[in-house]
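Consider a concrete sample entry:
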Amino acid sequence: MRRRWPSTRLTARLGSAGRLAIYHSLILTVVLGAVVLGLIRNFTSSYQTVAASSIGAELRDFQQQALQRQPTDLQRFAVNFLRNHTLAPGDVVVINLNGVGRVATPRSQPVLANSIVQPWLSSPPTQSVAVSTVIDGHPTELVGAPIIAGSQAVGTFIATADMSAFAKERSREIALSIAEGVIALLVAIAGTFLLLRRLLRTVGRITTTADEIGSGTLDQRLGDQGSNDEVGELARTFDSMLDRIQVAMDSQRRLLSDVSHQLRTPLTVARGHLEILGRGRADDPIEVHETVQIVIDELDHTRAVVERLLSLGRAMEPDFLDTRPVELRVLLREVHDAVGVLADRQFLLPESPDLVILVDVDKLRGALLNLIDNAVRATAPGDAIALVAEVDPRDDLLLLSVEDSGPGIPEDQRAAVLQRFSRPGSRNQDGSGLGLAIVKAVAEGHGGWITIGTSDLDGARVTIVLPGARIWASEEI
């Protein structure tokens, strides 16, 4: 079995920034290599083109004048031509006239000995030929062309250009291009590495913070990264997410604390009565009956609390609404008919607007029943409870209120009654204190809120405020 841990350790030492920088450098090396190679090829082609053009100009000049000469006069013309043309250092011209003779500039022997030139001395090429070769150890551009006199080829014009200076220049350009490419590559790799280190440092802090959160530390934050780019936005979004998580966790802890407190009392009461009964009073039927009734009452209270908590939990879930259109008057009439048997109260239902609203019917009906149940608990037999619906056209709101003629809720206690397990001002202390918390969650789920004030009946007025967007259709449409 092969051991691969050294590679893993090397990867760990390099880190993500190092690995990405290496991948980036490989890509840049290929790209810069292609660019340098293209520059060298273009430089070589351009220089060779210039050399060939210079030789070609001499060739054209000679051919144009040779066409006007007789074959017997070509040798003398060739001598005069070479005398009157100044060549660049290292250039050689050979004019080979078949059966007549040969005229050449100095240092022509290596050219005449070249294997490419040898066939031309006996038989002119059919057309101009340009090749790159090495003559006498020097890179050379060689051109051979037929000499036309009259209508036939009578010889060969051979010219060479020494490319040694170009070779040195090309070597210098290659070295310079490679050096520039290496410098650009190093700068790009260093810049990439530093940028990736900066980016991944933030990612590393996010990982560390997430690990600390996993261990229960919720007060860690990344803070301002000093930039408005994606990294800064990621850090701000992460911190915002942590804020929401901490609020949810704190709310959960408070809920668990409240639940444990609320359930502890009835369970303690039930356990205490059962212990008293078990210590010697189990033979008294009346005592047994009273104890059983007390335990049943406490268990019923506990069950009611648990059911309310489940309702509150479902109401606080995201996307918990199942909305559909419903006629407001039909909904209110159903609620009014349902509460008529709850208690000895005057249940009132004033005329409501003729609207079709888009709501979760079951949850909104439950919220209204909760408000009416709270109103029943806060009032006495014969008191009035009204279910009122109004439209606020100025603010584009729909107001669903439950009003009563009870003692009302003091202004300094109105914020507290919206908290879980809070029952200030209630005449009936058997309630769970969760009703308004559930109503608040339902209202907020519909995009609204709850307000508490004083009703026209001199009691409390609790209103579910819904945005006008919940109105599906109205009588004006």
Observations:
- The first strand starts at residue 92 and ends at 97.
- The chain has three domains: 14-169, 230-315, 324-474.
- The CA atoms of residues 96 and 102 lie 4 Å apart.
- The longest helix spans residues 5-66.
